[in-house]
Amino acid sequence: MEEDIIDRMMRPIVLIDSGVGGLTIFDAIYRRIPNASYVYCMDNACFPYGNKSSEMIVARIQYCLKTIQQYTLPAIFVIACNTASLDMLRSEIQSLCDCPIIFVIPPIQSVMIESKHQCVGLLATPKTIQSTLLDQMIQEQSKLCSVIKIGNLELVSLAEKKMKKVAINVDRIQAIIAPFFEQSCKPDQIILGCTHFPLLQHELHCATKLYTITWVSPEEDIANQVLAYWEAQYPGHSVKQPPKKSYVICTKSDRLHPALLQQFQVRHLDGPYYL
């Protein structure tokens, strides 16, 4: 990456994901802090994280963070992926930087407590579903509520395709999530445990129109965490100030689909540049 692209003094909010799912987190943060500088790191050389080993994911996140810090000092670092966050929680990533690190974790315990049916759903990547840390969270509230889990990677690809303006087959989504509704006790809330999945909100609603479902995703809570850290670092920082330069950085130099480039452009993310 060209050394003069990023101003070392701009202290950006840095987000990382293997694809475009992290844009759901970016959008929620941007609504609260529109005048910050952002770096969206898309580790597309390792897409998707949802079928990679924990060792590979930890190594990739560490590589991206170390490389970005050669060009700028992040104000806040957001791991905008549930799978990667669960792996990184048990790593020593905090020792690699001085800024706050925010992890995106499925809000499983709070949803289990709130469920009126005493049954909730968790839709995530297979690797997130298999997380021992997530299992521990579920076990702590298992007397209050049961959890139906579906691990699926196809939905990640479908979300990426939607961002490329490809029509999505709702019947296929309906087939993927059908196990949620095959038992006598059906969930009243379903957690979207992958940051890609909120991109398919419309299709998910269409696929479950026979049921009353509250879809739960963490982007608003994550954005509030970022805002709290931001205001602590920059008290009185006015949102009326002009927005600073923001960038999208990729780890694979393949030419991006024109529709994806448009998604970055409408978010005022310059690039892509490459690590």
Short description:
The chain has helices spanning 23-32, 54-68, 82-88, 108-114, 126-129, 132-140, 154-163, 170-177, 201-207, 219-233, 258-266; strands spanning 13-17, 38-42, 76-79, 101-103, 119-124, 146-151, 189-192, 214-216, 247-250, 270-274.
Question: What does this 3D model show about the protein?
Answer:
Helices cover 37% and strands 16% of the residues. The protein has 2 domains: 13-104 and 219-274, Rossmann fold; 108-216, 3-Layer(aba) Sandwich (Rossmann fold), CATH 3.40.50. By secondary structure, the chain is α/β, with parallel strands linked by helices. The strands form 2 sheets. It has a 6-stranded parallel sheet with strand order 4-3-1-2-9-10, with helices on both faces. Strands 6-5-7-8 form a 4-stranded parallel sheet.
What's the order of the H and E elements?
Answer: EHEHEHEHEHHEHHEHEHEHE
Under the CATH scheme, which class of the largest domain?
Answer: Alpha Beta
CATH topology of the largest domain: Rossmann fold
Ranges where pLDDT stays below 50 over 5 or more residues in a row are none
Strands in their spatial order, largest beta sheet: 4-3-1-2-9-10
**What is the general shape?**
globular
Distinctive features:
275 residues; alpha/beta; Rossmann fold; 2 domains; six-stranded parallel sheet; four-stranded parallel sheet; 11 helices; 37% helix; 16% strand
Summarize the SSE layout with pairings.
Blueprint: E1 13-17, H1 23-32, E2 38-42, H2 54-68, E3 76-79, H3 82-88, E4 101-103, H4 108-114, E5 119-124, H5 126-129, H6 132-140, E6 146-151, H7 154-163, H8 170-177, E7 189-192, H9 201-207, E8 214-216, H10 219-233, E9 247-250, H11 258-266, E10 270-274
Parallel strand pairs: 1-2, 1-3, 2-9, 3-4, 5-6, 5-7, 7-8, 9-10
Helix pairs in contact: 1-10, 8-9
